[in-house]
Amino acid sequence: MTLGGVIDELSLQELRAVLEHKVGKGALVVDLSQVEFLASVGVNELVAALRRAPSDSPVTLRAVRGSIAQVVMEMNGLPHATELTLPVEERSREVEAH
Prior knowledge:
This protein is an alpha/beta fold.
């Protein structure tokens, strides 16, 4: 599943509902590469999802190295996978924006 934009108090209920629905139903990769802001309430919800996940249905958090989400996860000691670069479609959008 891919998360994007702002994860804060306003989006928390939606994040919680989606994670509660998906955690435990097979391996789940939560891609945070498009997240622009990750508040502590979002971090807490991700931690809760990691703790709830049974060993046969793990949750993996993923972000681009240097992104807001990756920095926040690193600062909070959350286990995560890091990609070196943005996906191709993100790189092309970035170039067009300049």
